[in-house]
Write a structure and sequence with these properties.
Blueprint lengths: L1 H23 L30 H5 L14 H20 L3 H22 L4 H17 L9 H30 L1 E16 L4 E5 L2 E4 L11 E5 L1 E4 L2 E4 L2 E2 L2 E2 L2 E5 L3 E4 L2 E4 L9 E11 L5 H41 L10 H26 L3 H7 L4
Antiparallel strand pairs: 1-2, 1-12, 2-3, 4-9, 4-12, 5-6, 7-8, 9-10, 10-11
Helix pairs in contact: 1-3, 1-4, 3-4, 4-5, 4-8, 5-6, 5-7, 6-7, 7-8, 8-9
Length: about 375
């Protein structure tokens, strides 16, 4: 009983730390500076007695003691979720494997909530997770189902490589098949580029897209044909040919803005904005999924091996499709926007950690004809 209480408390404390990771990492805020937690609204440093996992949120009634702004319920939920996962891993594995899976489950929690909030999975989680998984396979080869260190090491490397190249192939094939998206309008529609040098945004009809979200590759471009372009208060006209205005090509790429034979770099772009023109069609680059998902599946493979990779990808794809259909039905197709795939990969990996081998055995028995008798022995399934 003492060990279970200790594991639960460790999970709550780790969940509190993960809340800081989820908030700070995507914003580039160091986890060491400031060392103490602070209120995102008023910046007040949170004293230790107001930073107790779950309890402080309840005692403060979900509000900051400094500015009275609401504290998102996600904070205690992340702490409780982490504690629950730690307890489940402890009950399933015990020592010495459980601490390894605590680390892995912590990475899953952080990646899931960051991806939901920012549609990214930071390299600190993916690349750091790959390194951590390989090192853990050396120290605790039992996590790979073997007692020999070099076999655990090879299985971890194989899982990471398989996870990386499987999704990398999906990304590349998706780019070839669906790498460009054309948006047409019934008549001339205003296109604007606004924002700042660091975060320029493209506005076209109902679309409002940070330019950084469009340029995953150096060769990615946004293209539009337009008769004029207004920039820096100057109105530039396309050349007029025999058949009238032919239209100039407006191109946005990772370097800057091009119209005709003129180019403007993003540095200093704030002085030129807003940039405006009228277009009836625009071509946007797109990806099948973010490259962070590729590295994330490699991280999963480093901890779970090749079987865990295949299961996580298969289960995550099915769960993502089912949840996506339900969301479209509930919102009547108006949900829009990009859908993060990382949380579903994490959910697939979690299923493997908790019940994956048993599910695989059940499926194998079913395929080979023993499924009916297995179900008889396990009626709850």
């Amino acid at each position: 009983m003492v060990s279970w209480i200790a594991v639960g408390l460790l999970g709550l404390i780790t969940g509190s730390f993960l809340n800081a990771v989820i908030h700070r990492l995507p914003l580039g805020i160091s986890l060491l500076n400031p060392k103490r937690s602070f209120c995102p609204s008023c910046g007040k440093t949170i004293p230790w007695h107001e930073n107790l996992p779950v309890a402080s949120w309840v005692l403060l009634r979900g509000r900051c003691s400094g500015c009275a702004m609401p504290i998102a319920i996600r904070y205690p939920l992340v702490e409780l979720l982490t504690a629950l996962l730690y307890l489940l891993a402890w009950g399933r594995f015990g020592l010495p494997d459980a601490p390894v899976f605590w680390l892995f489950l912590s990475l899953l929690v952080a990646a899931t909530f960051i991806d939901f909030d920012h549609l990214i999975i930071p390299d600190e989680i993916t690349k750091g997770g790959i390194f951590a998984g390989v090192v853990c396979s050396l120290l605790v080869p039992g996590m790979m189902g073997t007692g020999i260190w070099w076999q655990g090491f090879l299985f971890s490397l194989l899982g990471a490589a398989l996870g990386f190249f499987m999704l990398w192939g999906v990304v590349e094939l998706g780019k070839l098949a669906f790498g460009r998206r054309r948006i047409r309008t019934e008549g001339p529609t205003l296109l604007e580029i606004t924002g700042t040098d660091e975060e320029p945004q493209l506005i076209f009809g109902e679309e409002r897209i940070p330019l950084a979200d469009l340029f995953y590759r150096e060769k990615d471009q946004v293209e539009a044909t337009c008769a004029w372009l207004e920039i820096n208060g100057e109105r530039l006209q396309a050349e007029v040919g025999v058949e009238g205005v032919q239209g100039g090509v407006l191109t946005l790429d990772p370097r800057g803005v091009t119209y005709g034979d003129r180019f403007w770099a993003y540095e200093g772009l704030s002085e030129l904005m807003p940039i405006r023109t009228d277009v009836t069609m625009i071509t946007l680059p797109r990806e099948a999924m973010g490259f962070g998902d590729v590295k994330f599946l490699a991280c999963i493979g480093a901890f779970l091996g090749w079987k865990g990779v295949l299961f996580s990808l298969f289960a995550g794809s099915i769960l993502g499709a089912l949840i996506g259909v339900v969301m479209m039905a509930l919102t009547r197709g108006r949900s829009g926007g990009r859908i993060p795939f990382g949380p579903y990969l994490a959910l697939g990996a979690l299923l493997w950690v908790l019940v994956g081998p048993e599910m695989l055995e059940l499926y194998t028995n079913w395929v080979t004809g023993g499924g009916f008798f297995l179900l008889l022995r396990h009626p709850s399934l």
